[in-house]
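User: Sequence for GAF domain-containing protein below. Tokens please.
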Amino acid sequence: MNDGPDLRLVSWWNLPQTTAADWAHAAGDIARAAAVAAPGELFGDLARVCAGLVGWKLFTVLAIDHRQRLARRFYTSDPASYPIGGAKSFYGSELGATAFTDGRAFIARDHQELTRVFPDHELISSLGCGAALNVPVRHHGRVVGSVNILDVPNSYSESDAALIGPLAQYCAATLAEIAVG
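Assistant: Structure tokens for GAF domain-containing protein:
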């Protein structure tokens, strides 16, 4: 488990040329969607972009309700397993402390780390997922949500968080409208 990169200090311009070109194209797509799309469309566009950049089997977006200490699902790629509107408490957990409170990306690299951190690890595993990247989204310094991508074990690293973090930030204003507290 890592301490989570500080996504405000990402040097995306130092990426390999092809990755930088893909990232710049993706940033343009997400910026346009953030300006004109409804929340579901924006999150769907982000899911598509993330699939191309780092891949995933499950993609969700959560909005944070700080008053009730809950993370509520507002987008999902798998509504049967993870329906929109689902909520989970995050206070007192390692994930909550890292991503939702401290605002640092959280990476679980394998089944062992998923089991330790996610109460729903059996469902996650049943979907073929063994790694998770949870990227916090901040608005005026406060975490208002997270973008969560899951895939097979050892799928994600700090460099993936560096790719996805700035793109997830385009959802900040939308998640701030949805988030409570």
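Residues 10-178 form a domain with the Beta-Lactamase fold (CATH 3.30.450.40).
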